[in-house]
Amino acid sequence: MRIALSRRGDYAIRAMLALAEHERPGTDGYLSARRIAERMRIPARFVAHVLTDLGRAGLVRAGAGRAGGYRLAEPATSISVLRVVDAADGNGHVPRCVLRGSPCDPEGHCAVHETIARTTSAARAELARTSIAELVDAGGS
According to CATH, what is the number of the domain 7-137? Predict the structure, then answer.
């Protein structure tokens, strides 16, 4: 079994890593969308959409003007990977039945429903326990 992020979720985490690294001691100011895209190998056409998602979720702040760009809205230690993924992809609820490819029957769930639900909950709990700062410290970019 493989658990994978959507492309948008992947790019959101990459953008947050770039911003978190930029806020380490000795750096200051905002980081431009262009620099984030270049540094994290995010296609330029996607980076603005991802940063908008992150801004809407209150995870990044935008600054206008020549020295503008983006910065974290909170310390990286207080931003969980789950918050970033949810900002990009929604809450992770999969409305499709694993066995049928459509929603589970209104009268009941399929045989694998509860197992998948527990697995999803465990994965989300791990993402909630992990901060963006931990990823940076682990060499996440």
Answer: 1.10.10.10
